[in-house]
Specification:
The complex is a heterodimer of chains A (about 240) and B (about 400).
Chain A: E1 2-12, E2 17-28, E3 33-37, H1 44-51, E4 59-64, E5 67-68, H2 74-84, E6 85-88, H3 100-109, H4 116-129, H5 145-158, E7 163-167, H6 175-190, E8 194-198, H7 202-205, E9 210-215, E10 218-224, H8 232-236
Helix pairs in contact in A: 3-4, 3-5, 4-5, 5-6
Chain B: H1 4-12, H2 15-46, E1 57-63, H3 67-70, H4 72-83, E2 88-94, E3 105-108, E4 120-125, H5 131-135, E5 139-142, E6 151-152, H6 158-164, E7 167-171, H7 172-178, E8 188-191, E9 194-202, E10 223-224, E11 227-228, E12 236-241, H8 246-260, E13 265-271, H9 272-279, H10 281-315, H11 317-325, H12 330-367, H13 376-400
Helix pairs in contact in B: 1-12, 2-10, 2-12, 2-13, 10-11, 10-13, 12-13
The chains are: A alpha/beta (about 240), B alpha+beta (about 400).
Chain lengths: ~240, ~400
């Protein structure tokens, strides 16, 4: 599904050259749930922007669902992003001027060959799937944080993406709301979705099938079946600060 | 084009800003459509054919008060002297001229009438046998006056003379007004209760004073009466000369008249071309003023659109980034802002149509401006739509350059 090999990404200013990713390699199989962890500035977000085709990389090879994305122009990346990827952002990123239903329809507006009726049908279906159909006429400001993130997940699902990319999906939520959102993501994964989640929270990462740890732009460790490792509480005797399940 | 519904939904959340820009476009549309119509009207007036041979026509006029210098007999002596100037082909003393700004009007009707207002008011030209040749007017039907038909006209017997005038030449436009389906030659019209025989129809000549509507055929209504006039009727000495000799003829003619009438002054000494320019000077000034107003108004409107669009682009930078992250191409973002502007402009134009008609009705009532033709509304709409698209292009292109990675930044 996602196959990155020796990806390098360098940000340059007039005076500084920052190597955000260096020789980064990762493969994600279809239907897999992978958590990418690492400290601040380690390259997690850069990985996500490249995986999500939001920006290009300097060298290496990236094959997304069988398509080599290297050298694609902006329009081609936009199309591929729209068809293959569903985003869940930390800050939800719902458009405040649109109601929930219109928000969920946004990515479908950029999809070729989908008429208004089909758009509406898919959006309603996605909202039903996340349990938010009763709130479809509400504006984002009228929803709780957890509901907003559910709406954002519905928006990500509406286009039936091959890959769900989540950037700290519970980072802006309190514990109860975070639990609900994580359960929803896990449920989507159980239904067959391929999920790649970036998080700095070890307990959230532990709920994935596989953990990839990034330090200084390189994947330094891959932990298979992290859910069977000892929990943070068991290891440290402290509770998870927030965002835990 | 994007689907307008989500854009309208978004605009509903920014009612005041959207309303202000719609109002600005509506005002611009209403004022610009009327102003452009008025400019075109003024330009059409400036371009109106006078109907006379303008090149090679120079004019002199004595400001006379004394009887011996103002009579028809004195005028005949003056004309003989003026005709003797080398380069002069013909000369005539004429009571008024096209585009001179002052006219003698009489009312004519197909039936005897008692009140002036019962007839069609028409300017009357007279100037003796040389008038047609000097002004370059052609007889189209019938014939010119016989020499015996002419009589002298002096200030003291003007009314009596006109009551006794039994013949007239009329312009083609006036002939069509009175007898639209028949020849006017040999027909009788009435000046008050006096029957006047139409002996001929002449080519159209424009009136000394024309109305606001350049297309009004009445601008070419005219009657030529068989009278000779002198300076005491404020007559012009019109001299037909070879175009190359006109400046010299004008100077020599003025010198001759001054020599013959040392106690008089000349209150006009110019070519017809100059008189025409003088007549339309106000139209030209008004056209420039209106054009400047239109340009300023369109500029202010464009600045308003650019300002609001720039503000919205800045305000929605994150939203644009999110749309890009969700799959919008740059062209989709460009189209979003173009569609949004098109919808605002359309609302402004719809409102502006009503305002344009309202302004026109007011102008018609207070300034004798003709009715605004319907075609100006779609033309104005195209102008405002075009202006809107042009004005929004810069901010929209800036929006299209917003990177999708903006969506990843912390809120």
């Amino acid at each position: 599904m996602l196959d990155m090999r020796e990806i390098a990404k360098v940000y340059r200013t007039e005076t500084i050259e920052t190597h955000a990713l260096r020789g980064f390699t990762l493969s994600v199989r279809e239907g897999e749930f992978v958590a990418v962890t690492g400290p601040s500035g380690s390259g997690k977000t850069t990985f996500l922007t490249i995986a999500g085709l939001l920006e290009d990389f300097n060298s290496g090879e990236y094959i997304l669902d069988g398509v080599n994305v290297h050298g694609m122009n902006d329009d081609q990346r936009s199309r591929l992003r729209n068809e293959k990827i569903g985003f869940v952002f930390q800050a939800f990123n719902l458009i405040p001027d649109l109601n929930v239903l219109d928000n969920v329809e946004v990515p479908l507006h950029y999809r070729r060959g989908i008429g208004a009726a089909e758009r509406r049908k898919r959006a309603i279906g996605a909202l039903e799937r996340v349990g938010l159909s009763a709130r479809m006429r509400h504006y984002p400001a009228e929803l709780s944080g957890g509901q907003q993130q559910r709406a954002a997940i519905a928006r990500a699902l509406a286009g039936s993406p091959r890959l769900l990319l989540a950037d700290e999906p519970t980072g802006n939520l309190d514990t109860a709301m975070a639990r609900g959102v994580m359960e929803l993501i896990e449920e989507l994964h159980r239904e067959g979705a391929t999920v790649v989640m970036v998080t700095h929270d070890p307990d959230l990462a532990a709920r994935a099938e596989r953990n990839v740890h990034i330090v200084d732009g390189m994947a330094t460790g891959i932990l298979e079946e992290p859910r069977f490792r000892p929990s943070l509480r068991e290891r440290t005797g402290t509770d998870v600060p927030h965002g835990g399940a | 084009m994007m689907t307008p519904r989500p854009i309208l939904s978004s605009l509903r959340r920014h009612k005041i800003a959207a309303f202000l820009i719609v109002l600005e476009i509506a005002l611009a549309f209403a004022i610009v459509s009327n102003a452009v119509y008025m400019v075109i009207g003024r330009l059409q007036r400036i371009d109106l054919r006078s109907g006379i041979d303008e090149r090679g026509l120079v004019l002199l006029r004595l400001a006379t008060a004394s009887k011996q210098n103002g009579s028809v007999a004195s005028a005949q002596t003056d004309l003989a002297t003026l005709r003797a100037i080398p380069g002069v082909e013909s000369a005539s003393a004429i009571n008024t001229l096209p585009l001179s700004g002052s006219q003698w009007s009489l009312a004519y009707s197909l039936r005897p009438m008692r009140a002036f207002s019962d007839g069609v008011q028409v300017p009357v030209f007279f100037g003796g046998p040389g008038l047609l040749q000097t002004l370059g007017i052609r007889v189209i039907q019938g014939s010119a006056f016989q020499p015996s038909a002419y009589s002298d006209l002096s200030p003291k017997d003007v009314f009596k003379a006109f009551v006794n005038a039994r013949q007239a030449l009329i312009t083609q436009a006036f002939a069509q007004r009175l007898w639209p389906h028949a020849s006017a030659v040999g027909k009788v019209m009435y000046m008050g209760e006096t029957p006047v025989l139409v002996v001929g129809v002449v080519s159209n000549i424009i009136q000394p004073y024309i109305g606001a509507d350049a297309h009004d055929p009445a601008n070419y209504y005219g009657v030529i009466s068989p009278f000779r006039a002198g300076p005491d009727l404020n007559a012009w000495y019109a001299l037909r000369c070879q175009p190359a000799a006109c400046a010299r003829v004008l100077k020599a003619g003025a010198a001759k008249l001054q020599a013959m009438h040392p106690t008089e002054t000349l209150n006009a000494q110019e070519s017809f071309t100059h008189m025409r320019q003088r007549y339309f000077r106000d139209d030209r000034s008004m056209a420039w003023l209106l054009v400047s107003t239109v340009i300023a108004l369109l500029g202010v409107t464009a600045i308003g659109i650019v300002g609001l669009a720039s503000f919205w682009v800045q305000q929605r930078t994150r939203q644009i980034g999110v749309r890009r992250a969700l799959g919008a191409r740059r062209i989709d973002i460009l189209r979003y802002f173009q569609t949004e502007n098109f919808l605002l402009a359309t609302a402004g134009i719809a409102l502006g149509c009503a305002a344009a008609i309202g302004i026109n009705v007011w102008l018609m009532a207070h300034y004798a401006v003709p009715r605004l033709p319907v075609m100006y509304l779609p033309l104005g709409a195209l102008l405002l739509w075009g202006l809107g698209q042009l004005a929004v292009l810069g901010p929209a292109l800036r929006a299209a350059r917003v990177a999708p990675t903006v969506a990843m930044r912390s809120a």
